[in-house]
UniProtKB/TrEMBL annotation:
Signal sequence coordinates: none
EC number: 2.1.1.214
Keywords attached to this entry: Cytoplasm, Methyltransferase, RNA-binding, S-adenosyl-L-methionine, Transferase, tRNA processing, tRNA-binding
Organism: Agelaius phoeniceus
Domain of life from the UniProt record: Eukaryota
Main location as per UniProt: cytoplasm
Name the record gives this protein: tRNA (guanine(10)-N(2))-methyltransferase TRMT11
């Protein structure tokens, strides 16, 4: 998320910067404070950003580092007519108030000339102490210390204010608010973009993009969901109300002006004329756990499966293999994204069989990132971000990898079967343990 937002703000992520996986703190080289503020106006992963004045693996190293920090960079924030306060944040340890005061007093060598104001200071400084990630093995002294000037906070409050629990219209697969904003940030969504979700459901992914000023639209094969009809997904509610729909969700957050429309359509069938271009495609395809992957079938399949909606809309539904969903998604992205536009989607994975080679590829799309979210001990889903780097040509129409690389996705509901095989084994084990 951070690397995507840095590139959106005009910056570049330096590969030399240390990524400390086992630490909540991260040192970034950002060219300007303006860019840092722009980054924090979007991120839901980062909590705060600071101008780093000094750091070290011990208090002595921290103080030596602070003494080497250029005085001319400190002085603008330490003037006699200014006010300030110092915070202490400890990760994985709680300090008493006396311990905190002692650590603050130890910084008296810094040339503070202003007055302390605890309620409304002009400048806020933080001491950050890292006591590791293991709550069962907390060291006596911090393993790393940082001191800096607070610049801005991230957008973590969006997770609560856009919570699905408070949303007007939800479904079985409504995306968690935090993940929705992360996906929009991976897609580098910006004001006046056009963002499309081909498996739109109740529109959860449209909301986060609209929050960032993009115009949003989507399609879904489910007539009832698009029109807000049928059975409700909310507990203690049998049927959806008269105004439970995607438009109402955007209206709830004051974002209705960014809503273009949602269409009932089968993603496996072309409906867009050539030349329609999207700035980002952000979606969560169905993979057979809570929603079955479906597409329009032939009339020969009528006897096997006929579905009837509340409005007497009949259609024939057939299975939509996972491999075909991802083939179609990449091909669509390659053809309909603007150059530099991004495709962001979730790929379900059976972990014992996972290798990076099974991630679908396309010659027009470059893989930007691949992040894992665990679903169970044996399954997960990968958040895949791809960027269009080459114009789509007719010869790219069926540019897939070798079939052998997609074997884990061949066959109807293969992921679903593997997912539930693990659930069945777990239930059987629990029953066996209970009998003991």
């Amino acid at each position: 998320e951070i690397t995507s937002l840095l590139s959106l703000c005009g910056g570049q992520f330096s590969g030399e910067q240390e990524i400390r996986v086992n630490s909540p703190f991260w040192i970034l080289n950002i060219p300007s404070e303006e860019m840092a503020r722009g980054l924090m106006k979007r991120t839901v992963c980062a909590k705060s950003i600071f101008e780093l004045w000094g750091h070290g693996k011990s208090a002595g190293e921290l103080y030596a580092s602070l003494k080497n920090y250029p005085t001319d960079k400190m002085l603008p924030y330490l003037q006699s007519d200014s006010t300030y306060k110092v915070h202490i944040h400890t990760f994985n340890k709680t300090l008493t108030q006396a311990q905190k005061i002692k650590k603050i007093d130890a910084l008296e060598f810094l040339p503070f000339k202003g007055k302390v104001n605890l309620k409304n200071p002009e400048h806020v400084f933080w001491i950050l102490e890292d006591y590791g990630m293991d709550p069962n093995d907390v060291p006596e002294e911090p393993i790393h210390l940082y001191f800096g000037r607070w610049i801005a906070d991230g957008q973590r409050e969006l997770i609560e204010s856009y919570s699905v629990k408070k949303r007007h219209f939800i479904g079985n697969t409504s995306m968690d608010a935090c993940l929705s904003f992360i996906m929009a940030n991976h897609g580098r969504v910006k004001p006046n973009d056009i963002v499309y979700d081909p498996f739109v459901g109740t529109g959860g992914l449209l909301i986060s993009s609209a929050h960032f000023g993009a115009y949003v639209c989507g399609t879904d094969i489910d007539y009832n969901t698009i029109h807000g009809l049928g059975k409700a997904s909310r507990k203690n509610q049998k049927w959806r109300g008269p105004d439970e729909n995607i438009r109402a969700n955007l209206r709830q957050y004051g974002l209705e002006k960014y809503y273009l429309d949602a269409l009932v359509a089968d993603f496996s069938r072309p409906i867009w004329r050539k030349g329609i271009l999207f700035d980002a495609i952000i979606t969560d395809p169905p993979y057979g756990i809570r929603e079955a992957p479906r597409r329009m079938g032939s009339q020969k399949e009528t006897v096997k499966s006929v579905e009837r909606s509340t409005e007497n809309h009949f259609f024939v539904s057939s299975s939509y293999h996972l491999s075909d969903i991802f083939f179609d998604l990449l091909k669509f992205g390659a053809e309909y994204l603007v150059m530099g536009g991004r495709l962001v989607y979730w790929l379900p994975i059976y972990r014992p069989e996972y290798t990076e080679e099974i991630i679908p590829r396309h010659p027009c799309l470059k893989l930007i990132s691949n992040c894992e979210q665990l679903l169970s001990s044996h399954t997960s889903r990968r958040l895949i971000t791809m960027e269009k780097v080459k114009e789509f040509k007719d010869q790219d129409e069926n540019s897939y990898l070798l079939d052998g690389q997609y074997m884990p996705y061949r066959g109807h509901n293969s992921f679903r079967e593997k997912y539930f095989s693990g659930v069945t084994k777990r239930i059987a084990k629990e029953e066996k343990d209970n009998q003991k």
